[in-house]
Design goal:
heterodimer, A: about 300 residues, alpha+beta, Butyryl-CoA Dehydrogenase, subunit A, domain 3, 3 domains, 4-stranded mixed sheet, 10 helices, 9 strands, globular, B: about 375 residues, Butyryl-Coa Dehydrogenase, subunit A, domain 1, Butyryl-CoA Dehydrogenase, subunit A, domain 2, 11 helices
Chain lengths: ~300, ~375
């Protein structure tokens, strides 16, 4: 029985953490995603990892760290498309019934992949001239364009590939969110120790301490679910892949959102400011809960 | 990192399944819930069968008759016996999982020789006398007094929530031997023969209408000094030594049951809201199973990770959601407690309270894992 990070995986986690601390501090993260971010992550092997022989469990560890640091960009899509569509790749699920599509990071993309019932298409960003940039996007680090009618693209994969990408995308998004949930625990705990009221750190009061404890538990359970799902994806005989991935997306999505809100509460008035980073975690968690299936949709799939 | 069991664990599983398939059909009919003499016979008979087959004391060292199984094998044992609906540990709980491990760690040679083989064979039933009406979460504030008189302690006080108090032949008894010392430093751990004069046991009727807990009244009960386990006034440490024996497996049977119950709710969920709630409960239970496997993995390496301190709180909450979902789905069918799901809903109300309330768990996580300061003490 060996369900814990191996020495190599601990080194991998620490390496990505160090990279994020050194290269992607909050000042840079707040400048948003650009080609230099992509190039540095590409050099580290974030997008080519599985082609380079890493397992899902390893890639999931990388994405947990990227989420912990809130590194912006279409990282999951670029990872999924690696080897099939080159460059900076974003993606979207084709909306049904004539609804508008909300497209992330279009201005930096080399290609947009679109998933639908029949498979995977690639749309060139130049074909999206009709899209309108939102001047007040929910997440300041996720620029968004809205397009009324998403054009058809060139088909590059069948429904089987679309399913595989949805599964991998849900796992890596969950991994990223598990990292976000953990970051919220760490940041809120640090603030609870630093902020004094009534002559004591507010984190010493049980009302605050218990909120932080609940956040810590949610983050750890989510991380465990993500690790387990990645292991099942690597070795499908050890479980039910769809069930494991949906479970991870439910728990990590719920944890990221709950912990961002918990962190906002612990930060008090400071949590409501633009200056403090809490809102960036909260807004990203909403964005990611609307990506690769909501926690609710995955929960419903689990009960079927 | 993977979710595979080793070949030897899988071999153990196969051998155990085989034994269970042969043995379970031979068992007598399970006795009624409140027929305690029959329950003692049934549970100790099961313990004897485990002993004869080499499955008693899975975690106990070999020199005391145990199997000294690695944590992963203990997990497989609990998983398979629960799945096969084998008897629970029942009245053997305190002896095999608490008092026995305490004697192994801290008992004298004569104490070990007298009790350990009998506990393992199911010849001896133990109960626990720790909590008091005024000492629950603040267990170290206990006030039952033991005054030295020659070769005896003379014990007077009241204990509550004594599991199996009315059927135990021996009790684990915590007493105050130094009323002047700081509260954690004046406690001693005694073996109490439950038939001594001055002991009165009264069953407590729980909200299930059953009585596995008792109150125990002690009126100048003489307990020989040789019954003390560990040094005088060192009982708090002795008590806490036992906890390290669980090695991450304490909730395995509970988890297997909970997952089975959740699966059985699937066909009852017609409403989308109920399906979503069931999905969230399934996700939580799957993750807690993975957390169990992780805790056991770490325990095998002698590591206590964060998950070990978090498990009980997370499990309490998941189990509560499962219980409430069962009640909602059963509707008026839940009026009959004979439905196992209803009985389980009632039984599991104790989980967030017993063995450290959820509030105490949150303090432990906040203070030991997150490093937050303790709240100002009122003492």
């Amino acid at each position: 029985m060996n369900f814990d990070l191996s020495d190599d995986q601990v080194a991998l986690r620490d390496g990505i953490r160090k990279l994020c601390e050194g290269r992607f501090d909050m000042a840079r993260v707040r400048r948003g995603f650009d080609r230099s971010v992509f190039a540095e992550l590409a050099e580290t092997g974030v997008f080519s990892a599985r082609a380079d022989g890493f397992a899902w469990a390893d890639v999931s560890i990388m994405f947990q760290e990227l989420g912990r640091a809130l590194v912006p960009g279409p990282l999951t899509w670029s990872h999924l498309a690696h080897g099939r569509v080159d460059g900076v790749v974003g993606g979207v699920e084709r909306p049904r019934g004539g609804e508008p599509a909300y497209l992330e990071q279009i201005d930096v993309l080399d290609a947009l992949v679109v998933l639908d019932r029949d498979g995977v298409e690639v749309v060139a960003p130049s074909a999206l001239a009709d899209s309108i940039e939102l001047d007040w996007p929910l997440d300041p680090l996720t620029p968004v364009r809205r397009i009324t009618a998403l054009p058809a693209g060139e088909r590059v994969g069948d429904a089987g590939l679309a399913r595989t990408w949805r599964r991998g995308g849900a796992l890596l998004t969950a991994a990223y969110q598990a990292g976000m949930a953990q970051a919220c625990v760490e940041r809120a705990t640090a603030y609870g120790l630093e902020r004094h009221q009534f002559g004591r750190p507010v984190g010493s009061f049980q009302a605050v301490k218990h909120l932080l404890a609940d956040m810590a538990v949610q983050a750890e359970v989510a991380r465990t679910a993500v690790d387990a799902a990645a292991c099942v994806l690597d070795d499908p005989e050890t479980g039910d892949v769809d069930r494991a991935v949906s479970g991870a997306k439910v728990l990590a999505g719920d944890a990221a959102l709950a912990n961002a809100k918990g962190s906002l509460q612990v930060h008090g008035g400071m949590g409501f400011t633009w200056e403090v980073d809490v809102h960036l975690y909260l807004k990203r968690s909403w964005v990611l809960n609307a990506t690769f299936g909501s926690p609710t949709a995955h929960a419903e799939a689990l009960a079927r | 990192m993977d979710l595979r069991l080793s070949e030897s664990d899988e071999a153990f599983r196969a051998e155990l399944r085989d034994w269970l398939a042969r043995t379970l059909p031979e068992l007598p009919t399970e006795p009624a819930r409140d027929d305690w003499p029959a329950r003692v016979r049934y549970d100790t008979d099961w313990q004897r069968r485990l002993f004869d087959a080499g499955y008693a004391g899975m975690s106990w060292p070999k020199e005391y008759g145990g199997r000294d199984a690695p944590p992963s094998e203990q997990l497989v044992f609990l998983e398979e016996t629960t799945r096969a609906k084998a008897p629970y540990v029942g009245v053997n709980f305190v002896g095999t999982l608490h008092a026995g491990p305490t004697l192994i760690a801290e008992g004298s040679d004569p104490q070990r020789a007298q009790h350990l083989p009998r506990i393992l064979r199911g010849d001896e039933v133990w109960c626990q006398c720790f909590s008091e009406p005024g000492a629950g979460s603040d267990l170290a504030g206990l006030r039952t007094r033991a005054v030295r008189d020659g070769n005896d302690y003379v014990v007077t006080g009241q204990k509550i929530w004594c599991s199996f108090g009315h059927v135990g032949e021996y009790g684990e008894l915590l007493v105050r031997t130094d009323p002047d010392a700081p509260k954690h430093r004046g406690i001693s751990w005694l073996i109490l023969e439950m038939d001594r004069p001055g002991i009165e046991v009264r069953p407590i009727e729980t909200l299930l209408g059953s009585s596995e807990f008792c109150e125990v009244f002690l009126d100048e009960v003489r307990v020989p000094v040789e019954n003390r386990v560990g040094a005088e006034n060192d009982g708090w440490r002795v008590t806490n030594v036992t906890l390290s024996f669980e090695r991450g497996t304490a909730f395995v049977s509970e988890m297997v049951d909970a997952r089975q119950l959740a699966e059985e709710l699937r066909p009852l969920t017609a409403e989308p809201a109920d399906r979503r709630e069931l999905g969230r409960v399934l996700a939580a239970l799957d993750a807690l199973w993975a957390l169990t496997v992780r805790n056991v993995t770490q325990a095998s390496r002698g590591v206590v990770g964060p998950g070990a301190l978090m498990f009980k709180l997370a499990y309490s909450e998941a189990r509560d959601r499962l219980g409430e979902l069962s009640m909602r789905l059963l509707g008026r069918g839940a009026f009959d407690v004979h439905d196992e799901r209803v009985e389980e809903r009632l039984r599991t109300l104790s989980i967030p309270i017993a063995a450290g309330t959820s509030q105490i768990q949150r303090n432990i996580i906040g203070e030991r894992l997150l490093g937050l300061p303790r709240e100002k003490s009122w003492e």
